[in-house]
Known about the structure:
462 residues; mainly alpha; Growth Hormone, Chain: A; 17 helices; 0% strand; globular
Amino acid sequence: MGRTLKPGQAVLRIHGLRQNWFQFSLLALLTMMVGATIGVERVALPPLAQHAFGVTSVLYTVSFVSAFGVVKAIMNLVSGRLSDRRGRKLLLLAGWGFAVPYAVLIIFAQNWIWVLVANMFLGVNQALTWTMSVTAMIDLVGPVNRGLAVGINEAAGYVGVGLGGFAAGLLVVSYGLRPAPYLLALGIVGLGGAITIWPTRETLPFARAESELRAAAVATTSPAAAGPMPGADVSPGLGRLAVYMSWHDRSMLAVCQGGFLNKFADSLVIGFFPLYLLQRGLSLLQVGLVVGVYAWVWGLGQVATGALADRVGRRLPIASGILTVGAAVALIPITSGLGPWLGASALMGVGMALVYPNLISAVGDVAHPAWRGGALGVYRFWRDGGYAVGPLVLGGLALAFGLVAAFWAMAFLMGLSGAIVIVLMRETAPSRRRQDPAWQGHPEWIYGAAAGLSEPLPPPLG
Protein backbone atom coordinates (compact mmCIF):
# COMPACT_ATOMS: atom_id res chain seq x y z
CA MET A 1 0.00 0.00 0.00
CA GLY A 2 3.04 2.22 0.04
CA ARG A 3 3.08 2.92 -3.72
CA THR A 4 1.26 5.77 -5.43
CA LEU A 5 -1.40 4.76 -7.94
CA LYS A 6 -1.73 7.02 -10.93
CA PRO A 7 -5.10 7.66 -12.57
CA GLY A 8 -5.84 4.97 -15.11
CA GLN A 9 -3.29 2.52 -13.69
CA ALA A 10 -4.65 -1.01 -13.85
CA VAL A 11 -1.90 -3.48 -13.07
CA LEU A 12 -3.02 -6.70 -11.42
CA ARG A 13 0.11 -7.01 -9.29
CA ILE A 14 -0.81 -3.99 -7.14
CA HIS A 15 -3.39 -6.18 -5.38
CA GLY A 16 -2.53 -9.10 -3.13
CA LEU A 17 -1.31 -10.09 0.32
CA ARG A 18 2.29 -10.53 -0.77
CA GLN A 19 2.48 -7.19 -2.54
CA ASN A 20 0.93 -5.30 0.40
CA TRP A 21 1.97 -7.42 3.37
CA PHE A 22 3.21 -4.52 5.51
CA GLN A 23 0.08 -2.38 5.26
CA PHE A 24 -2.14 -5.47 5.50
CA SER A 25 -0.33 -6.48 8.70
CA LEU A 26 -0.75 -2.99 10.14
CA LEU A 27 -4.48 -3.14 9.49
CA ALA A 28 -4.68 -6.56 11.13
CA LEU A 29 -2.88 -5.18 14.18
CA LEU A 30 -5.25 -2.22 14.32
CA THR A 31 -8.21 -4.57 14.10
CA MET A 32 -6.86 -6.57 17.04
CA MET A 33 -6.75 -3.32 19.03
CA VAL A 34 -10.32 -2.51 17.98
CA GLY A 35 -11.39 -5.91 19.28
CA ALA A 36 -9.46 -5.54 22.53
CA THR A 37 -11.24 -2.22 23.20
CA ILE A 38 -14.63 -3.89 23.23
CA GLY A 39 -13.30 -7.07 24.85
CA VAL A 40 -12.58 -5.08 28.00
CA GLU A 41 -16.24 -4.17 28.29
CA ARG A 42 -17.59 -7.67 27.71
CA VAL A 43 -16.14 -8.95 30.95
CA ALA A 44 -15.91 -5.83 33.12
CA LEU A 45 -19.22 -4.06 32.49
CA PRO A 46 -22.04 -6.54 33.35
CA PRO A 47 -20.78 -7.00 36.95
CA LEU A 48 -20.33 -3.23 37.24
CA ALA A 49 -24.07 -2.76 36.75
CA GLN A 50 -24.89 -4.52 40.00
CA HIS A 51 -21.87 -3.78 42.15
CA ALA A 52 -21.44 -0.09 41.33
CA PHE A 53 -24.96 1.04 40.41
CA GLY A 54 -27.25 -1.48 42.07
CA VAL A 55 -28.82 -2.54 38.77
CA THR A 56 -30.43 -5.96 39.25
CA SER A 57 -32.89 -6.14 36.34
CA VAL A 58 -31.55 -8.34 33.53
CA LEU A 59 -33.22 -6.16 30.90
CA TYR A 60 -31.77 -2.97 32.35
CA THR A 61 -28.34 -4.56 32.72
CA VAL A 62 -28.10 -5.52 29.03
CA SER A 63 -29.47 -2.17 27.87
CA PHE A 64 -25.88 -0.99 27.34
CA VAL A 65 -25.64 -3.46 24.43
CA SER A 66 -28.75 -1.95 22.81
CA ALA A 67 -27.38 1.59 23.18
CA PHE A 68 -24.16 0.41 21.56
CA GLY A 69 -26.00 -1.40 18.77
CA VAL A 70 -28.29 1.46 17.76
CA VAL A 71 -25.43 3.90 17.28
CA LYS A 72 -23.10 1.39 15.66
CA ALA A 73 -25.74 0.29 13.14
CA ILE A 74 -26.49 3.86 12.06
CA MET A 75 -22.82 4.78 11.83
CA ASN A 76 -22.08 1.67 9.76
CA LEU A 77 -24.62 2.85 7.23
CA VAL A 78 -23.18 6.36 7.08
CA SER A 79 -19.49 5.51 7.27
CA GLY A 80 -19.54 2.84 4.58
CA ARG A 81 -21.05 5.21 2.03
CA LEU A 82 -18.83 8.09 3.11
CA SER A 83 -15.68 5.99 2.80
CA ASP A 84 -16.37 5.46 -0.91
CA ARG A 85 -16.01 9.21 -1.34
CA ARG A 86 -13.61 10.36 1.39
CA GLY A 87 -11.44 7.32 1.90
CA ARG A 88 -10.86 4.83 4.70
CA LYS A 89 -8.02 6.34 6.76
CA LEU A 90 -9.74 9.55 7.85
CA LEU A 91 -12.76 7.66 9.21
CA LEU A 92 -10.52 5.10 10.90
CA LEU A 93 -8.70 7.88 12.74
CA ALA A 94 -11.97 9.55 13.73
CA GLY A 95 -13.14 6.23 15.16
CA TRP A 96 -10.25 6.10 17.61
CA GLY A 97 -11.12 9.58 18.78
CA PHE A 98 -14.64 8.51 19.78
CA ALA A 99 -13.28 5.77 22.06
CA VAL A 100 -11.70 8.29 24.46
CA PRO A 101 -14.97 9.68 25.94
CA TYR A 102 -16.28 6.11 26.17
CA ALA A 103 -13.57 5.06 28.63
CA VAL A 104 -13.54 8.36 30.52
CA LEU A 105 -17.32 8.35 31.02
CA ILE A 106 -17.32 4.85 32.51
CA ILE A 107 -14.40 5.66 34.82
CA PHE A 108 -16.28 8.65 36.27
CA ALA A 109 -19.86 7.37 35.83
CA GLN A 110 -22.23 8.36 38.64
CA ASN A 111 -25.20 6.29 37.43
CA TRP A 112 -26.17 3.82 34.70
CA ILE A 113 -27.20 6.59 32.28
CA TRP A 114 -23.54 7.58 32.02
CA VAL A 115 -22.75 4.02 30.98
CA LEU A 116 -25.44 4.07 28.27
CA VAL A 117 -24.05 7.33 26.87
CA ALA A 118 -20.53 5.90 27.00
CA ASN A 119 -21.66 2.94 24.94
CA MET A 120 -23.01 5.27 22.27
CA PHE A 121 -19.47 6.61 21.88
CA LEU A 122 -18.19 3.03 21.78
CA GLY A 123 -20.71 2.25 19.03
CA VAL A 124 -19.31 5.06 16.89
CA ASN A 125 -15.77 3.88 17.61
CA GLN A 126 -16.48 0.30 16.58
CA ALA A 127 -18.48 1.27 13.49
CA LEU A 128 -15.77 3.53 12.13
CA THR A 129 -12.68 1.55 13.06
CA TRP A 130 -13.77 -2.01 12.28
CA THR A 131 -15.76 -1.13 9.16
CA MET A 132 -12.81 0.80 7.76
CA SER A 133 -10.23 -1.86 8.62
CA VAL A 134 -12.08 -4.67 6.87
CA THR A 135 -12.92 -2.49 3.87
CA ALA A 136 -9.27 -1.43 3.57
CA MET A 137 -8.02 -5.02 3.75
CA ILE A 138 -10.45 -6.06 1.01
CA ASP A 139 -9.18 -3.12 -1.06
CA LEU A 140 -5.60 -4.37 -0.75
CA VAL A 141 -6.07 -8.00 -1.77
CA GLY A 142 -8.47 -7.53 -4.71
CA PRO A 143 -11.01 -10.17 -5.75
CA VAL A 144 -8.90 -13.34 -5.57
CA ASN A 145 -8.35 -13.75 -1.80
CA ARG A 146 -11.29 -11.78 -0.47
CA GLY A 147 -12.47 -14.51 1.90
CA LEU A 148 -8.99 -14.97 3.34
CA ALA A 149 -8.60 -11.23 3.86
CA VAL A 150 -11.92 -10.96 5.70
CA GLY A 151 -11.05 -14.06 7.72
CA ILE A 152 -7.74 -12.56 8.83
CA ASN A 153 -9.44 -9.28 9.69
CA GLU A 154 -12.13 -10.90 11.79
CA ALA A 155 -9.63 -13.31 13.33
CA ALA A 156 -7.44 -10.44 14.45
CA GLY A 157 -10.43 -8.56 15.84
CA TYR A 158 -11.86 -11.43 17.85
CA VAL A 159 -8.52 -12.61 19.12
CA GLY A 160 -8.29 -9.02 20.37
CA VAL A 161 -11.74 -9.36 21.95
CA GLY A 162 -10.61 -12.49 23.76
CA LEU A 163 -7.33 -10.96 24.90
CA GLY A 164 -9.04 -7.75 26.01
CA GLY A 165 -11.67 -9.68 27.93
CA PHE A 166 -9.16 -11.95 29.65
CA ALA A 167 -6.90 -9.01 30.54
CA ALA A 168 -9.91 -7.15 31.92
CA GLY A 169 -10.78 -10.15 34.07
CA LEU A 170 -7.27 -10.19 35.54
CA LEU A 171 -7.37 -6.44 36.20
CA VAL A 172 -10.79 -6.66 37.85
CA VAL A 173 -9.60 -9.44 40.17
CA SER A 174 -6.46 -7.49 41.11
CA TYR A 175 -7.63 -3.86 41.08
CA GLY A 176 -11.44 -3.79 41.01
CA LEU A 177 -14.08 -2.95 38.43
CA ARG A 178 -12.88 0.63 37.94
CA PRO A 179 -10.73 2.31 36.69
CA ALA A 180 -8.07 -0.28 35.75
CA PRO A 181 -9.87 -2.02 32.83
CA TYR A 182 -10.76 1.29 31.20
CA LEU A 183 -7.27 2.70 31.65
CA LEU A 184 -6.15 -0.33 29.65
CA ALA A 185 -8.73 0.60 26.98
CA LEU A 186 -7.40 4.17 26.85
CA GLY A 187 -3.87 2.87 26.33
CA ILE A 188 -5.02 0.67 23.44
CA VAL A 189 -6.90 3.57 21.87
CA GLY A 190 -3.90 5.87 22.07
CA LEU A 191 -1.61 3.33 20.41
CA GLY A 192 -4.20 2.58 17.72
CA GLY A 193 -4.59 6.25 16.89
CA ALA A 194 -0.83 6.73 16.63
CA ILE A 195 -0.43 3.78 14.24
CA THR A 196 -3.32 5.06 12.13
CA ILE A 197 -1.71 8.48 11.74
CA TRP A 198 1.55 6.84 10.69
CA PRO A 199 2.51 4.49 9.04
CA THR A 200 -0.98 3.37 7.91
CA ARG A 201 -1.93 4.66 4.45
CA GLU A 202 -5.08 5.21 2.43
CA THR A 203 -6.46 2.23 0.43
CA LEU A 204 -9.27 3.83 -1.59
CA PRO A 205 -6.99 4.01 -4.68
CA PHE A 206 -6.85 0.21 -4.64
CA ALA A 207 -10.65 -0.04 -4.88
CA ARG A 208 -10.61 2.41 -7.78
CA ALA A 209 -7.83 0.47 -9.48
CA GLU A 210 -9.86 -2.74 -9.13
CA SER A 211 -12.79 -1.03 -10.80
CA GLU A 212 -10.49 0.01 -13.64
CA LEU A 213 -9.20 -3.56 -13.95
CA ARG A 214 -12.75 -4.79 -14.39
CA ALA A 215 -13.46 -2.14 -16.99
CA ALA A 216 -10.29 -3.01 -18.90
CA ALA A 217 -11.06 -6.74 -18.83
CA VAL A 218 -14.61 -6.25 -20.10
CA ALA A 219 -13.45 -3.78 -22.76
CA THR A 220 -10.98 -6.37 -24.07
CA THR A 221 -13.59 -9.09 -24.48
CA SER A 222 -16.70 -6.98 -25.16
CA PRO A 223 -16.07 -3.28 -25.80
CA ALA A 224 -19.78 -2.51 -26.00
CA ALA A 225 -20.32 -3.75 -22.44
CA ALA A 226 -17.35 -2.02 -20.90
CA GLY A 227 -19.28 0.88 -19.39
CA PRO A 228 -17.40 4.03 -18.41
CA MET A 229 -13.78 4.76 -19.00
CA PRO A 230 -11.48 4.01 -16.03
CA GLY A 231 -11.86 6.49 -13.26
CA ALA A 232 -15.56 7.19 -13.81
CA ASP A 233 -17.48 7.47 -10.55
CA VAL A 234 -20.93 5.96 -10.83
CA SER A 235 -22.33 5.23 -7.39
CA PRO A 236 -25.93 4.61 -6.28
CA GLY A 237 -27.70 6.65 -3.63
CA LEU A 238 -27.76 5.24 -0.11
CA GLY A 239 -31.53 4.73 -0.10
CA ARG A 240 -31.51 2.80 -3.38
CA LEU A 241 -28.57 0.71 -2.21
CA ALA A 242 -30.32 -0.09 1.08
CA VAL A 243 -33.47 -1.26 -0.74
CA TYR A 244 -31.41 -3.41 -3.09
CA MET A 245 -29.46 -5.08 -0.28
CA SER A 246 -32.48 -5.53 1.97
CA TRP A 247 -35.10 -6.63 -0.55
CA HIS A 248 -34.33 -6.84 -4.27
CA ASP A 249 -31.43 -9.29 -4.06
CA ARG A 250 -32.67 -12.37 -2.24
CA SER A 251 -29.13 -13.56 -1.49
CA MET A 252 -28.35 -10.26 0.19
CA LEU A 253 -31.66 -10.42 2.06
CA ALA A 254 -30.57 -13.81 3.42
CA VAL A 255 -27.14 -12.42 4.29
CA CYS A 256 -28.58 -9.37 6.08
CA GLN A 257 -30.99 -11.42 8.20
CA GLY A 258 -28.17 -13.86 8.97
CA GLY A 259 -26.02 -11.01 10.26
CA PHE A 260 -28.95 -9.51 12.19
CA LEU A 261 -29.70 -12.72 14.11
CA ASN A 262 -26.00 -13.48 14.44
CA LYS A 263 -25.74 -10.43 16.68
CA PHE A 264 -28.61 -11.71 18.79
CA ALA A 265 -26.33 -14.65 19.56
CA ASP A 266 -23.34 -12.44 20.28
CA SER A 267 -25.54 -10.29 22.54
CA LEU A 268 -26.29 -13.45 24.47
CA VAL A 269 -22.58 -13.92 25.12
CA ILE A 270 -21.98 -10.26 26.03
CA GLY A 271 -24.93 -9.69 28.32
CA PHE A 272 -26.27 -13.06 29.40
CA PHE A 273 -23.32 -15.48 29.64
CA PRO A 274 -21.72 -13.56 32.53
CA LEU A 275 -25.00 -13.28 34.43
CA TYR A 276 -25.99 -16.93 33.89
CA LEU A 277 -22.56 -18.37 34.66
CA LEU A 278 -22.10 -16.23 37.76
CA GLN A 279 -25.51 -17.44 38.99
CA ARG A 280 -24.36 -21.02 38.43
CA GLY A 281 -21.30 -20.55 40.64
CA LEU A 282 -18.42 -19.65 38.33
CA SER A 283 -15.93 -17.00 39.41
CA LEU A 284 -15.47 -13.81 37.42
CA LEU A 285 -12.11 -15.09 36.16
CA GLN A 286 -13.73 -18.36 34.99
CA VAL A 287 -16.45 -16.36 33.24
CA GLY A 288 -13.72 -14.39 31.49
CA LEU A 289 -12.15 -17.67 30.38
CA VAL A 290 -15.43 -19.02 28.95
CA VAL A 291 -16.08 -15.78 27.06
CA GLY A 292 -12.45 -15.65 25.97
CA VAL A 293 -12.48 -19.20 24.55
CA TYR A 294 -15.53 -18.32 22.45
CA ALA A 295 -13.80 -15.24 21.09
CA TRP A 296 -10.44 -16.97 20.50
CA VAL A 297 -11.91 -19.96 18.65
CA TRP A 298 -14.12 -17.64 16.63
CA GLY A 299 -11.23 -15.31 15.91
CA LEU A 300 -8.51 -17.81 15.01
CA GLY A 301 -10.92 -20.04 13.10
CA GLN A 302 -11.86 -17.31 10.66
CA VAL A 303 -8.52 -17.45 8.85
CA ALA A 304 -9.24 -21.06 7.88
CA THR A 305 -12.96 -20.60 7.24
CA GLY A 306 -12.41 -17.49 5.12
CA ALA A 307 -9.85 -19.32 2.97
CA LEU A 308 -12.14 -22.38 2.84
CA ALA A 309 -15.00 -20.28 1.48
CA ASP A 310 -12.75 -19.00 -1.33
CA ARG A 311 -12.63 -22.64 -2.48
CA VAL A 312 -16.02 -24.16 -1.62
CA GLY A 313 -18.17 -21.03 -1.76
CA ARG A 314 -19.93 -18.94 0.88
CA ARG A 315 -23.36 -20.57 1.15
CA LEU A 316 -22.38 -23.88 2.77
CA PRO A 317 -20.14 -22.40 5.50
CA ILE A 318 -22.74 -19.72 6.32
CA ALA A 319 -25.67 -22.13 6.64
CA SER A 320 -23.74 -24.79 8.57
CA GLY A 321 -22.20 -22.18 10.85
CA ILE A 322 -25.54 -20.64 11.79
CA LEU A 323 -26.95 -24.06 12.69
CA THR A 324 -23.81 -24.87 14.71
CA VAL A 325 -24.21 -21.69 16.74
CA GLY A 326 -27.81 -22.64 17.50
CA ALA A 327 -26.78 -26.10 18.69
CA ALA A 328 -24.01 -24.67 20.88
CA VAL A 329 -26.38 -22.19 22.53
CA ALA A 330 -28.75 -25.04 23.37
CA LEU A 331 -25.90 -26.91 25.10
CA ILE A 332 -25.41 -24.18 27.72
CA PRO A 333 -28.65 -24.76 29.69
CA ILE A 334 -28.56 -28.57 29.36
CA THR A 335 -24.99 -28.99 30.65
CA SER A 336 -23.26 -27.98 33.87
CA GLY A 337 -19.71 -27.27 34.95
CA LEU A 338 -16.74 -25.34 33.63
CA GLY A 339 -15.57 -28.09 31.25
CA PRO A 340 -18.88 -28.57 29.37
CA TRP A 341 -19.45 -24.82 29.21
CA LEU A 342 -15.98 -24.30 27.77
CA GLY A 343 -16.81 -26.96 25.17
CA ALA A 344 -20.10 -25.28 24.26
CA SER A 345 -18.34 -21.93 24.09
CA ALA A 346 -15.69 -23.35 21.75
CA LEU A 347 -18.37 -24.96 19.54
CA MET A 348 -20.18 -21.65 19.35
CA GLY A 349 -16.90 -20.06 18.31
CA VAL A 350 -16.55 -22.61 15.50
CA GLY A 351 -20.02 -21.76 14.23
CA MET A 352 -19.34 -18.04 14.36
CA ALA A 353 -16.07 -18.55 12.50
CA LEU A 354 -17.94 -20.27 9.68
CA VAL A 355 -20.57 -17.55 9.49
CA TYR A 356 -19.04 -14.20 10.27
CA PRO A 357 -16.33 -13.56 7.67
CA ASN A 358 -18.26 -15.25 4.90
CA LEU A 359 -21.31 -13.02 5.29
CA ILE A 360 -19.01 -10.06 4.68
CA SER A 361 -17.28 -11.83 1.79
CA ALA A 362 -20.65 -12.54 0.19
CA VAL A 363 -21.41 -8.82 0.19
CA GLY A 364 -17.99 -8.12 -1.29
CA ASP A 365 -18.67 -10.71 -4.01
CA VAL A 366 -21.88 -9.01 -5.09
CA ALA A 367 -20.95 -5.33 -4.70
CA HIS A 368 -19.12 -3.39 -7.39
CA PRO A 369 -15.84 -1.81 -6.16
CA ALA A 370 -17.33 1.63 -6.88
CA TRP A 371 -19.96 1.11 -4.15
CA ARG A 372 -18.47 -1.69 -2.05
CA GLY A 373 -18.10 0.50 1.03
CA GLY A 374 -21.75 1.50 0.87
CA ALA A 375 -22.91 -2.09 0.42
CA LEU A 376 -20.84 -3.23 3.39
CA GLY A 377 -22.31 -0.33 5.36
CA VAL A 378 -25.87 -1.47 4.64
CA TYR A 379 -25.06 -5.05 5.60
CA ARG A 380 -23.35 -3.94 8.80
CA PHE A 381 -26.32 -1.68 9.57
CA TRP A 382 -28.56 -4.75 9.59
CA ARG A 383 -26.00 -6.92 11.33
CA ASP A 384 -25.30 -4.53 14.19
CA GLY A 385 -28.97 -3.67 14.39
CA GLY A 386 -29.11 -7.09 16.03
CA TYR A 387 -27.18 -5.57 18.93
CA ALA A 388 -29.94 -2.99 19.29
CA VAL A 389 -32.89 -5.39 19.14
CA GLY A 390 -31.43 -8.65 20.43
CA PRO A 391 -30.79 -7.64 24.06
CA LEU A 392 -34.29 -6.18 24.35
CA VAL A 393 -35.97 -9.32 22.97
CA LEU A 394 -33.81 -11.74 24.94
CA GLY A 395 -33.88 -9.53 28.03
CA GLY A 396 -37.67 -9.37 27.92
CA LEU A 397 -37.86 -13.16 27.71
CA ALA A 398 -35.38 -13.53 30.57
CA LEU A 399 -37.35 -11.06 32.67
CA ALA A 400 -40.61 -12.90 32.05
CA PHE A 401 -39.47 -16.53 32.04
CA GLY A 402 -35.92 -16.63 33.43
CA LEU A 403 -32.45 -16.58 31.89
CA VAL A 404 -32.76 -20.10 30.46
CA ALA A 405 -35.64 -18.96 28.23
CA ALA A 406 -33.29 -16.54 26.47
CA PHE A 407 -30.95 -19.42 25.56
CA TRP A 408 -33.75 -21.58 24.13
CA ALA A 409 -35.21 -18.68 22.16
CA MET A 410 -31.79 -17.96 20.70
CA ALA A 411 -31.31 -21.57 19.64
CA PHE A 412 -34.66 -21.50 17.84
CA LEU A 413 -33.90 -18.21 16.08
CA MET A 414 -30.57 -19.53 14.80
CA GLY A 415 -32.32 -22.59 13.39
CA LEU A 416 -34.80 -20.32 11.62
CA SER A 417 -32.00 -18.13 10.27
CA GLY A 418 -30.14 -21.13 8.89
CA ALA A 419 -33.28 -22.31 7.11
CA ILE A 420 -33.72 -18.89 5.48
CA VAL A 421 -30.13 -18.99 4.16
CA ILE A 422 -30.65 -22.49 2.73
CA VAL A 423 -33.86 -21.46 0.96
CA LEU A 424 -33.02 -17.95 -0.28
CA MET A 425 -29.28 -17.61 -0.73
CA ARG A 426 -27.57 -18.36 -4.02
CA GLU A 427 -23.83 -18.93 -4.18
CA THR A 428 -21.93 -15.63 -4.50
CA ALA A 429 -18.26 -16.67 -4.71
CA PRO A 430 -16.99 -15.59 -8.16
CA SER A 431 -15.29 -18.95 -8.82
CA ARG A 432 -18.39 -21.03 -8.04
CA ARG A 433 -21.53 -18.98 -8.71
CA ARG A 434 -23.81 -19.95 -11.56
CA GLN A 435 -25.70 -16.67 -11.76
CA ASP A 436 -24.53 -13.08 -11.94
CA PRO A 437 -25.44 -10.74 -9.06
CA ALA A 438 -29.03 -9.56 -9.32
CA TRP A 439 -28.08 -5.95 -10.07
CA GLN A 440 -26.39 -6.98 -13.32
CA GLY A 441 -29.68 -8.33 -14.62
CA HIS A 442 -31.61 -5.38 -13.19
CA PRO A 443 -29.23 -2.38 -13.17
CA GLU A 444 -32.19 -0.09 -12.50
CA TRP A 445 -32.35 -1.54 -8.98
CA ILE A 446 -29.00 0.10 -8.29
CA TYR A 447 -28.74 2.98 -10.74
CA GLY A 448 -32.37 3.93 -11.32
CA ALA A 449 -32.92 6.22 -14.30
CA ALA A 450 -29.20 6.08 -15.15
CA ALA A 451 -29.60 2.46 -16.27
CA GLY A 452 -29.99 2.35 -20.01
CA LEU A 453 -30.19 6.13 -20.38
CA SER A 454 -27.52 8.78 -20.65
CA GLU A 455 -25.19 8.03 -17.73
CA PRO A 456 -22.61 5.25 -18.24
CA LEU A 457 -22.58 2.38 -15.76
CA PRO A 458 -19.66 0.53 -14.16
CA PRO A 459 -18.60 -2.64 -15.95
CA PRO A 460 -20.12 -5.98 -14.91
CA LEU A 461 -18.39 -8.09 -12.30
CA GLY A 462 -16.10 -10.71 -13.74
